[in-house]
Amino acid sequence: MSWRDLLEIAALVVLLAVTVPPLGRYIAAVYGSRADGTAPGDRVFLPVERALYRAMRIDHRREQRWNAYAMSLLAFSLVSLLGLYALLRLQGALPFNPTDRESVSPTGAFNIAVSFVTNTNWQWYSGEVAMSHLTQMFGLAVQNFVSAGVGFAVVIAIVRGITRTHDRSRSLGNFWVDLTRGTLRILLPMSFLFALVLVSQGVVQNLGGGTSVDLVDPAAAEVVGTDTQTIPGGPVASQIAIKDLGTNGGGFYNANSAHPFENPNGLTNLLAMWSLLALPFALVVAFGILIGDRRQARLLGSVMVGMLVVMSAWTVMAETNGNPRLTELGVDQSVSSLQGGGNMEGKEVRFGTTSCAVYAAATTGTSNGSVNCMHDSFTPLGGMAPMLSMMFGEVSPGGIGVGLMGLLVNALLAVFIAGLMIGRTPEYLGKKIQAAEMKLVTLYILAMPAALLGFAAVSMTLDSANTFQPGPHGLSEVLYNYASAANNNGSAFAYQGTGTDWYTVTQGIAMLIGRFGLIIPALAIAGSLAGKPVVPTTSGTLPTHTPLFGALIAGVVVVASGLTFFPALALGPVLEHLSI
Amino acid sequence: MRTAVRQFARQLVPALVALASFTLLLGIIYPLATTAVSQVAFGGRADGSVVERDGVAVGSELIGQPFLSPQYFHSRPSAAGAGYDASASGGSNLGPLNADLLGTVVERVAEYRAVNGLDARVPVPVDAVTASASGLDPHISIANARLQARRVAGARGVAEGDVLAEVDAAIDQPALGVLGEPAVDVLALNLALDARFGAVD
């Protein structure tokens, strides 16, 4: 790691430190932190929102009980899923298809539709080969927005569950209002501005199918079998902006943010890393404002930052040290002023190894899944770190809404364990945590590992599912890819062919479990909390804003996933590392 | 159960209307507005930063190309299609211990040394023997470019110092001095060589 790498990381930290607090205050205002209920931009947004509510035939002042809120969320997701599925199945026959893409197979389309609706953006296909411009705009870009909008709705509903007391109706707000406000007031304006910045740096944004150019070197043309190169076109920047901001991660092109047209230089790379992390962290700030106790938010934010820093440092160390096998073959992987060095297979020269490693930690600490280098070619330990970040449940800082939701559920588990140790009824944020909530917490904690390990285990036994590399790396691929699906991440150990019926269907199911199998128990917990009274704070109350409690939450996250996944990890990346 | 189904069904109307409205707003208006502003404000960039020579489009500033002639600096190995196929971006995705990867690297190291007339003890820069993530990496490291300079100068019959000067001129410095790594733009460098010393037939 060079001084330049350190300064680059410092630039990212400063950029986040400056922008996250105001962004958090803005989000809080959008979700009603001001006493009079106003928010910045009301004059522009309110008329549009009112028109939308009228078209949807909903009364925006009417609140929904937690289960009605969940029903709305499910109905919206189902309609989105069916709409996107139809679009994919029919794209060959639909207009605005300048690159002549064919329709997608039934299982393939199921996988893609689930993937984009669940904010996963897992891609078993190559974007530039499989998707028409119409699908990219109408289908994928729209779901990029609204799946993140659903994330906002979920976390705001949970906030209401915490702040409301004695609410017999157990209402958590109105899903349609929360979805609309988050999408229109936060995601849309940010994406528009970010897209323009990206275009100014060279990210393409046009409606054409591509430009053919003549290769300069005729000798090379003979070897690659063509004397032209097709410079691809498409509405790329508009999609990349929301892909990064909305913890989505689905690239326009197969190479994702490693493609020069998605991420042309160091500046766009810094902004991309910022955009992966900005909104998930800002939501923590907003959470503190909305529950009226910023110390709690600061503690949760610190846990997230701490985990992110550890995972970044781990990945950076593993990757900048390079691949020992290559050094034996006479390859120079040293870091110097003349080369970035490190393990460069699957990495771009303009970013260098450190940027890739930090990006990998950011994209798996959130549930983004956009990549600027190929994780499958990481060193064994370097690849284990992003895998582990996902297995932690992506809580550093996690996807929009769902990351904070995950850490809050882990906090409930932490107060429960602490309660057992000190012999008191556990309380969190003023609410008693009882059997009903703990059952839901258990359901929540078990859903993701069950989907991940269950499908991975069956895949290892099926001959037809053997599309992975030989040795322990093959197991790493299967684990990584189901971890990605079950945590709605979307990044991949991409050598493994996952376009088969088995993988498209089972990963689709894993994504559904990882999304709705977590959101619904969390909303149920929030509904249950809304009905409870506030317990007065006494000298016996366990304070939940202290570093001690932070360590306890981090410990719960690490120990729970450590116990669950260690045997599998030992046979995958750990064994691979030991056999270097 | 029946009430749950009824409750669910009642939500379908707002769900359909919401999806339709968001598709109009985010799937049509947003990308078209972004395209319109981009085309007006940053026309060439929005269309792929195409480079022209004598009125002919010969590449994109941002996308790498294959080069194999001795008179040109060579790009990195590429896993995109048959090599630098811009409609099939991607990396090799081979694991660090994969026998195919290690075997290929052995061959690439030997070839790099042979082509550039290097002693068997000279370590080869890692970017010269590994495939990039996109398969379209437009850059090579400065170390890699400097090791190729003698061969390029010999093939063109010009002084190595002049070629090295062109290498220095083709370095893309990191944005703000710290964002990313300094890197040599291969297409720009080779076009500059052609412009100064004459094109290769």
Give a quick summary of the entry.
By secondary structure, chain A is an all-alpha fold.
What features would you describe in this structure?
The complex is a heterodimer of chains A (about 575) and B (about 200). Chain A contains 19 helices and 5 strands. Chain A has about 575 residues and is mostly helical. Chain A has one domain (about 5-210, about 230-580). In chain A, the strands form 2 sheets. A two-stranded antiparallel sheet of chain A has the order 1-2. In chain A, strands 4-5 form a two-stranded antiparallel sheet. Chain A is globular, with a radius of gyration of 23 Å. Chain B is mainly α and about 200 residues long. Chain B has helices spanning about 1-10, 10-40, 45, 100-115, 140-155, 160-170, 185-195, and strands at about 50-55, 55-60, 125, 140, 170, 185. Chain B is elongated and about 80 Å long. Chain B starts with a helix and ends with a helix. The model of chain B has no long low-confidence stretch (mean pLDDT about 95). At the A-B interface, helix 1, helix 2, helix 3, helix 6 and helix 7 of A face helix 1, helix 2, strand 2, helix 4 and strand 3 of B.
Present the secondary structure layout.
The complex is a heterodimer of chains A (580) and B (201).
Chain A (H helix, E strand, L loop, with lengths): L2 H28 L11 H15 L9 H25 L15 H12 L9 H4 L2 H31 L11 H26 L10 E4 L3 H7 L3 E4 L5 H9 L20 H26 L2 H27 L3 H5 L2 E2 L19 H14 L14 H12 L10 H21 L4 E2 L2 E2 L2 H27 L10 H15 L14 H30 L16 H32 L2
Antiparallel strand pairs in A: 1-2, 4-5
Chain B lengths: L1 H9 L1 H30 L1 H4 L3 E4 L2 E5 L38 H17 L8 E2 L13 E2 L1 H15 L3 H10 L1 E2 L10 E3 H12 L4
Mean pLDDT of chain A: 95
Sequence of strands across the biggest β-sheet of chain B: 4-6-5
Supply Rg of chain A: 23 Å
The outline of chain A comes out as globular
Q: Into how many domains do the coordinates of chain B divide?
A: 2
Number of strands of chain A: 5
Helical fraction of chain B equals 40-55%
Q: State the separation between the terminal residues of chain B, measured CA to CA.
A: 77 Å
Number of strands of chain B: 6
Beta-strand percentage range of chain B = 5-15%
Give the count of helical stretches of chain B.
7
Oligomer status: heterodimer
What does the main sheet of chain B amount to?
3 strands, antiparallel
Helix content of chain A: 55-70%
Written as H for each helix and E for each strand, in order along the chain, the element string of chain A is: HHHHHHHEHEHHHHEHHHEEHHHH
Strand pairing plus helix content of chain B: what structural class?
Answer: mainly alpha
